[in-house]
Specification:
It comes from Streptomyces nigra. This is RNA polymerase subunit sigma. Belongs to the sigma-70 factor family. ECF subfamily. With 298 residues, the chain is of the alpha+beta class. The protein contains twelve helices and six strands.
Length: 298
């Protein structure tokens, strides 16, 4: 960096590095490969001239894009092997923040995705990056990235769940709604898988959680905080994408649509759509004949 004007607060620099480590570990797994990807990213930064670095408006975005392309290239390497956590040279363990949102089960499921699907899912669903940024990293159009994200979610659902009959799905979602309406964690937690994971899609238009929440206790707390009873806020049950979902209305407007994946009588995934752009069809004055259009996650 060229001079004092390039200096940033130490806390900001450390947070930037942790962000890169988190992204790399979601994409490559916890281990040496992720650490090397972060190191290679900073090498790229320091290969730039002073003028080139000065011309970068947001270094964090530039670094994230660079590291995303590095990770994607490594994911595409034939014969790539994720590190075994039991290996002595597996690298540093994930930090506390990452440990709350990631598990070996989910990493194994992510490893079954194609490189492009994994990259899009991680960047879009886990880190809530803007669609143009994701498209730039992956080298696809935003529309193609949306399709990749849909395929990734479908694959993750298929990997985690045995088909649940509609009547059982409906019964469990009704129980979840009741627990949330009563703000009752003791009722809600037993309805969730111990490895449950929740995604909150705010689309950058509402201050929603930008990382998934992992584990029954954390998911329950997040749902109860989001749906804490308030005047003129109501929880309804309706069909979304062919299954019972919870629709949250505030001042008669649909503010969220929450759908669930269920296996073995427990909720495995929560998909909460809060992005106002994706809820427009739910707030039309004259909805379609079938009630509402489908909600797309991502």
């Amino acid at each position: 960096m060229g001079g004092a004007d390039d200096t940033a607060p130490l806390a900001e620099l450390l947070d930037e590095r942790q962000h890169l480590i988190d992204v790399a570990r979601w994409m490559l797994g916890a281990g040496a490969a992720a650490e090397e990807a972060v190191t290679d990213t900073y090498r790229r930064w320091y290969r730039l001239t002073d003028d080139e670095r000065t011309g970068i408006e947001d270094p964090r975005i530039w670094l994230t894009k660079s590291m995303g392309s590095i990770c994607l290239a490594r994911l595409s390497t034939p014969g790539r092997r994720l590190p075994d956590p039991d290996d002595g040279d597996a690298g540093l363990e994930p930090g506390p923040a990452l440990s709350e949102t990631i598990s070996g089960v989910l990493l194994d499921a992510l490893d079954a995705l194609s490189p492009a699907e994994r990259a899009v899912f991680v960047l879009n669903d886990v880190f809530a990056m803007p669609p143009p940024t994701v498209a730039d990293i992956v080298g696809r159009t935003p529309r193609e990235c949306a399709q990749l994200a849909d395929r990734a979610r479908s694959s993750l659902r298929a990997d985690r769940a045995h088909p649940t009959p509609p009547h059982q799905h409906d019964r469990i979602v009704r129980a979840v709604r009741q627990a949330c309406a009563l703000d009752d964690a003791a009722r809600l937690v037993p309805l969730l898988s111990r490895d449950a994971i929740a995604f909150f899609d705010g689309g950058g238009k509402i201050r929603a959680l930008t990382r998934p929440v992992h584990g029954d206790q954390h998911v329950a707390r997040a749902l109860l905080t989001l749906l804490v009873p308030r005047s003129r806020t109501t929880l309804h049950l309706t069909a979304a994408n062919g299954r019972t979902a919870i629709v949250v209305r505030h001042h008669e407007q649909v503010a969220a649509v929450i759908s669930f994946d269920i296996a073995d009588q427990r909720v495995t995934h929560v998909w909460a759509v809060l992005n106002p752009d994706k809820l427009r069809s739910w707030n039309r004055p004259h909805p379609p004949a079938d009630g509402h259009g489908p909600v797309r996650h991502g």
